[in-house]
Automatic annotation (TrEMBL):
<dbReference type="GO" id="GO:0043565">
    <property type="term" value="F:sequence-specific DNA binding"/>
</dbReference>
<protein>
    <submittedName>
        <fullName>Helix-turn-helix transcriptional regulator</fullName>
    </submittedName>
</protein>
<keyword id="KW-0238">DNA-binding</keyword>
<feature type="domain" description="HTH araC/xylS-type">
    <location>
        <begin position="189"/>
        <end position="287"/>
    </location>
</feature>
<dbReference type="InterPro" id="IPR018060">
    <property type="entry name" value="HTH_AraC"/>
</dbReference>
<keyword id="KW-0804">Transcription</keyword>
<dbReference type="GO" id="GO:0003700">
    <property type="term" value="F:DNA-binding transcription factor activity"/>
</dbReference>
<dbReference type="Pfam" id="PF12833">
    <property type="entry name" value="HTH_18"/>
</dbReference>
<keyword id="KW-0805">Transcription regulation</keyword>
<dbReference type="InterPro" id="IPR009057">
    <property type="entry name" value="Homeodomain-like_sf"/>
</dbReference>
Length: 288
């Protein structure tokens, strides 16, 4: 169902179906971009990011981007744009204690928060919350108080993810200088984005390291520190997760799914799938 809903506090929710290309545009507010079916490509400068149902993207205010989708796919996208005052008020409540909040008054003139514009995992509480919000809106709900409560909880969910994906991972890097940790993590997220967006291609360590502006050995050491997996292990897990979606939501034969997610050998895929999920791909499809 397609709609664009602007609330009285200027928070905005957009639901769109169908594939199309949209030329250069700017975000007016912090925006969370989800793809509930199919995939959508975002071009941000020289970065080309593909979003699937297991991931979402953050765009800060003022970011220029363009989007494209495969016309052969049934794409369903969902975006939440947070008004700057609503976002700043939430960030203050998240950061300060009650006495400090009372002393801050109306909060005019404060710098607006910025977040790492990268791909984040779409799972757990945030997925549950967003799907419930969309279902209510699809059913015609007009209660703005309830809608804003959902948006508030979406931000809570995102802050938890941001803490796990950015703050905690930066702390795992064994560099004394905080600026160095932040910069290394920024480059590692470029590598992670590349894996998310090109998971079904033949990716070499050299290509990945070049994309992240790191040497191969530097990439291997720091990637494992931050994400707890080597790039190859991360890629295998990502391919297996994407295979779950294809097995559940499409009719492609298992042998075709193998190639679609980037595996070359069906027997190797089946072995890895069974090891990871304790079930064969065929039995998973039947149970799903």
């Amino acid at each position: 169902m397609d709609y664009s809903k602007v609330l009285r506090n200027n928070n905005k929710i957009v639901s769109r179906t169908g594939g199309q290309r949209q030329g250069p545009q700017y975000t007016s507010d912090l925006s969370l971009r989800f793809v509930l079916s199919g995939s959508e490509r975002y071009d941000i400068g020289r970065r080309h990011l593909s979003i699937y149902p297991d991931s979402f993207l953050i765009l800060n205010r003022g970011t220029q981007y363009s989007t494209d989708t495969d016309l052969d796919q049934q794409v369903q996208s969902f975006a939440i744009n947070f008004d700057q005052q609503f976002l700043q008020d939430f960030k203050d409540c998240w950061t300060f204690d009650h006495d400090s909040l009372l002393d801050k008054g109306n909060g005019n003139g404060k710098a607006q928060p910025e977040f790492n514009e990268t791909i984040y995992p779409f799972a757990g509480d945030i997925k549950y919350n967003v799907f419930h919000l969309k279902q209510h809106l699809d059913d015609g709900m007009q209660d703005e108080m309830l809608i804003n409560e959902y948006l508030h909880h979406t931000l809570i969910n995102y802050f938890h993810i941001y803490n796990d994906e950015i703050c905690k991972k930066a702390e795992k890097l064994d560099f004394l200088n905080q600026g160095t940790r932040v910069e290394i993590l920024r480059r590692l997220n470029l590598a992670k984005e590349f894996l998310y967006s090109n998971y079904n291609q033949n990716i070499s360590l050299e290509d990945l390291a070049e994309h992240a502006c790191l040497s191969v050995n530097h990439l291997l050491r720091t990637f494992k520190q931050a994400f707890g997996l080597t790039p190859h292990q991360f890629l295998i897990q990502l391919r297996l997760k994407r295979s779950l979606m294809l097995l559940k939501d499409t009719r492609y034969p298992v042998n075709e799914v193998v190639g679609m997610v980037g595996f070359e050998c069906p027997s190797s895929f089946i072995r890895l799938f069974r090891t990871h999920y304790k079930i064969t791909p065929l039995k998973y499809r039947q149970s799903a």
